[in-house]
Amino acid sequence: MSDLTRLSADTMAQQLVSGQITSVELTQAHLDRIADVDRAVHAFLHVSSEDALSAAGDVDARRAAGETLHPLAGVPVAVKDVVVTRGMPTTAGSKILEGWVPPYDATLVEKLRAAGMPILGKTNMDEFAMGSSTEHSAYGNTHNPWDLDRIPGGSGGGSAAAVAAFEAPLAIGTDTGGSIRQPGAVTGTVGVKPTYGGVSRYGLIAMASSLDQAGPVTRSVLDAALLHEVIGGHDPRDSTSLPDPVPALSAAARLGAQGDLTGVRVGVVNELSGEGYQAGVSARFEESLDLLRAAGAEIVEVGCPSFRHALSAYYLIMPSEASSNLAKFDGMRFGLRVEPEDGPVTAERVMAATRGAGFGDEVKRRIILGTYALSAGYYDAYYGSAQKVRTLIQRDFDAAFASVDVLVSPTSPTTAFRFGEKLDDPLAMYLNDIATIPANLAGVPGLSVPNGLSDDGLPVGFQILAPARADDRLYRVGAALEAALEAGWGGPLLAQAPELEIAR
């Protein structure tokens, strides 16, 4: 493997500025890595070699001409296939959008391009972001680089696997109930869900509009902060976009890396641990708490009783919003169109044939759940009640943050499971997001940082939650824990991952 692909994005950026490497060299190294291993990993649905090298060459020319560029200019990035990209296919992992090439860029993609970051391609995902394992993609499974027989998490398993396999130094994911953080936990990468509205949703193919949020997938907390600063900020095209400027996130990460958390109060959420959590996950969590104490943090227990009902509320609110958002995929305007094999060709029959052929089983399951929850006679009992629970969860967060600076828990209750292990049991699959869902319901930011290996030799994650608009706290505490962990490991956790066989 090229040593270039092993560098942190921050180090890549420094070497680009100093002239030690060029963006073309760096981008080509990652394209070569994709060619070597992605046949085994299948992190990418589309690789944009020509466009990425063209963007890299432009950055090199501008830098050589003395132009002042963005700090990350020339560092390549991968983008989850639920984010629209002009000139590149965007499928959301679904046959119903197979071959669709959008005529415009999402706001966050505009920001990546404006920063001079070559886009390597689009990453695989559960169809329409519905899943926790990337087994629901219409284009095949993505494999976990730690063990190719295991899932990389979901729905953003492609982005996490690409970063973990050193195919990309940075990636964009989206998180509706844990789809950045849970893949981060099971692949040994850093995943961040920003405050709701902190990154524009314009150009994201919506699943659940009140829950969806794009964010960074990286190999270090500082790299995540740097990417977050690129894509964050107000966007008038998104009615839910916050007017606030992006906080000084990279400064918070650099401060945290110094290892001093004196005066920081860390709340351990009682309802997000204990029974149902794998023994190795719980052990690494307790060890991480000890490291935070050693850094000067005060650790206290916090009760958030409504969190016990978060999963139930989420699986009423999310499918209800999804059933509404996915109504646009009707075979009439864009994407797949399937006409009935016999009988009259009516709008209703074309819509039924198209949606029947174009949507996978998990998407159909959630559309049916959501449509039922919104139907006459059931709206108040199901969707309305779930929204009341959501309010209680938000109040629990408010009460907790009145006494602590951040809340913590394991990110995922288990390590990566084998393919097929939970496909026939939707509830078991849904439980993978039990610790991540509350943050989406309340709109607060969350970060998952790798905090070691379980007894099965697979990575686990440590989740940090902060109040809305206080994303900088995530980066300070996350960087402090990361520094303490890596001091004990003698380097990043991914250095312990088995090397992938070259597929070429």
Automatic annotation (TrEMBL):
Residues 25-474 form the Amidase domain. Keywords: ATP-binding, Ligase, Nucleotide-binding, Protein biosynthesis. SUPFAM superfamilies: Amidase signature (AS) enzymes. It holds the Pfam family Amidase. The active site is at K80 (charge relay system), S155 (charge relay system), S179 (acyl-ester intermediate). Transmembrane segments: none annotated. Gene3D superfamilies: Amidase signature (AS) domain. Its EC number is 6.3.5.7. One of its GO terms (molecular function) is ATP binding. The keyword Nucleotide-binding applies. The keyword Protein biosynthesis applies. It is an enzyme of class 6 (ligase). GO terms for cellular component: glutamyl-tRNA(Gln) amidotransferase complex. InterPro entries: Amidase (IPR000120), Amidase_CS (IPR020556), Amidase_dom (IPR023631), AS_sf (IPR036928), GatA (IPR004412). GO terms for biological process: translation. It catalyses: L-glutamyl-tRNA(Gln) + L-glutamine + ATP + H2O = L-glutaminyl-tRNA(Gln) + L-glutamate + ADP + phosphate + H(+). PROSITE patterns: AMIDASES. Belongs to the amidase family. GatA subfamily. Allows the formation of correctly charged Gln-tRNA(Gln) through the transamidation of misacylated Glu-tRNA(Gln) in organisms which lack glutaminyl-tRNA synthetase. The reaction takes place in the presence of glutamine and ATP through an activated gamma-phospho-Glu-tRNA(Gln). Heterotrimer of A, B and C subunits. This is Glutamyl-tRNA(Gln) amidotransferase subunit A. It comes from Sanguibacter suaedae. The gene is gatA.
